[in-house]
Write a structure and sequence with these properties.
This protein is mainly beta. The chain folds into 2 domains: 2-69, Outer Surface Protein A, domain 3, CATH 3.90.930; 75-155, Outer Surface Protein A, domain 3, CATH 3.90.930. It contains 2 helices and 13 strands, in the order ββββββαββββββαβ. It has helices spanning 61-69, 129-140; strands at residues 2-5, 11-15, 19-23, 28-32, 36-41, 46-51, 75-82, 86-91, 94-99, 105-108, 112-118, 121-126, 152-155. The model has no long low-confidence stretch (mean pLDDT 77).
């Protein structure tokens, strides 16, 4: 028996007794349920799928539940600017970063929310995990932390090791 938890913001349909269609405003997933009988418990918000045939089908219940769980959650990351000579400007969805270069890095962001918390702190929200990770990695690679001075961009819980220079040894 396979149990699938359906959060409040998701809807589902059974199409022609062959497919389970789970959807919300942003995402959808379609599961072939040819060899299953389906039961829905509205109080627990759980769909039970029972095998009707003896075919050897394997479904990863944890993966499916985590996939549906990620639809209703936000992912976020906090970034810090350490050092001198940087400028951060936020205009609507566009973010301008200047780190003592002759050019300014422009981030046009449509899928994630970027908020400036303080002069040196930036908060990024996103619903889609892949787009969120791409945005965070892109911003972190603009100014990589220097091993010797610990200056640059760093994530919240990033472990930073300072390397000793030859003069300090």
């Amino acid at each position: 028996m396979l149990k699938i938890y359906i959060p409040n913001n998701l809807n589902f349909l059974v199409l022609a007794n062959k497919y389970l269609y789970i959807y919300n405003s942003n995402h959808f997933i379609m599961i072939n349920i040819n060899f299953f009988s389906i039961y829905y418990n509205q109080y627990l918000q759980v769909i039970n799928l029972k095998k009707t045939n003896t075919l050897n089908l394997k479904y990863n219940k944890n993966f499916l539940n985590m996939f549906l769980f990620s639809w209703e959650n936000f992912f976020f990351s906090k970034l810090y600017f350490i050092g001198k000579g940087f400028k951060l400007k936020k205009l609507s969805n566009n973010t301008y970063l200047n780190f003592n270069y002759s050019h300014t890095n422009l981030i046009i962001n449509q899928k994630n929310i970027i908020k400036k918390i303080q002069k040196n702190k930036l908060l990024i929200f996103g619903k889609n995990l892949n787009n969120f990770k791409q945005t965070v990695n892109y911003i972190l690679n603009i100014k990589i932390l220097n091993k010797y001075t610990k200056r640059g961009l760093r994530a919240t819980k990033q472990i930073v090791y300072k390397k000793k220079s030859k003069g300090n040894i």
